[in-house]
Amino acid sequence: MLSYPISLTPDDNGTLLVTFPDVPEAITVGDDEDDAKAQALDALEAAFEIYFAEKRSIPMPSKAKRGQSVVTLPALVTAKVLLADEMLRQNVRKAELARRLSVNQVQVDRLLNFGHSSKIEMVESAFAVLGKRLDVRAV
């Protein structure tokens, strides 16, 4: 899974400002550290949706410094991020992926939507038609 380092900065109104060194578009606030991390995940996913819409490559996370907090993307979201990035690398559009998978383009739209709970088998199939393999490891 992808774990992105975050910076938590106390704001003058008692909240915590959350920024991502690797994703400057992702900025949010939280009432406390737990809330800030929860809000950070939403902000990160929203920023990645902007990257997708603009057909920009998703920045991979840098290594967190000792003691630095991180936000870890859920496994399915990580797979979707990596899939979208691979599509960009290969210059494969959604319509082309749908054709290769023999599915409707709406299914590909859902496959790249973080909010949709796609089946991991469909993500694996998408990687396969791109000549790649999804590798999930326990650490």
UniProtKB/TrEMBL annotation:
Signal peptide interval: none
Top-level taxon of the source organism: Bacteria
Coiled-coil spans in chain: none
Residue ranges of every copy of the HicB-like antitoxin of toxin-antitoxin system domain listed in the record: 4-69
Official protein name in the record: Antitoxin
Protein's organism: Paraburkholderia terrae
Recorded name of the encoding gene: ydcQ
